[in-house]
Write a structure and sequence with these properties.
Helix content: over 70%
Largest sheet: none
Radius of gyration: 15 Å
Shape: elongated
Structural class: mainly alpha
Strand content: under 5%
Number of helices: 5
Length: 112
């Protein structure tokens, strides 16, 4: 467990993991509640953006006949793998940054 506490009173790594455990909702919740921990804010932003992009991709793939079904299944698999990898890294206290989305989250974090 992380010796550092977020402004929510939870250890930073637990708060960051909760951002991913409850996709999008966790990110929104911790963005609203967290006032101090850059680690938690980064993971909240990355969670929100990652799972929003996946949700939009799922919606768009549903509009494509035949190939859309395959794309949707692939997106579901990618979503589960990302979910597990991101939670595992967050609970270990790692600043795991996804390509593109992680960079965007980092830039947004600088503005907060």
């Amino acid at each position: 467990m992380s010796p550092f506490k977020s402004s929510t009173g939870l250890p930073e790594n637990l708060a960051a993991t909760l951002c991913y455990l409850f996709p999008m909702v966790g990110g929104i919740l911790f963005l609203a509640l967290e006032k101090r921990s850059r680690y938690v804010i980064f993971h909240a932003l990355q969670s929100l953006m990652t799972f929003a992009v996946l949700a939009i991709a799922h919606l768009l793939s549903g509009a494509v006949p035949i190939i859309g079904l395959l794309a949707s299944a692939l997106l579901a698999l990618v979503g589960v793998v990302l979910w597990l990898v991101l939670m595992a890294n967050a609970i270990q206290g790692k600043w795991y940054k996804l390509p593109w989305i992680g960079a965007i989250a980092e830039k947004q974090m600088q503005r907060i």
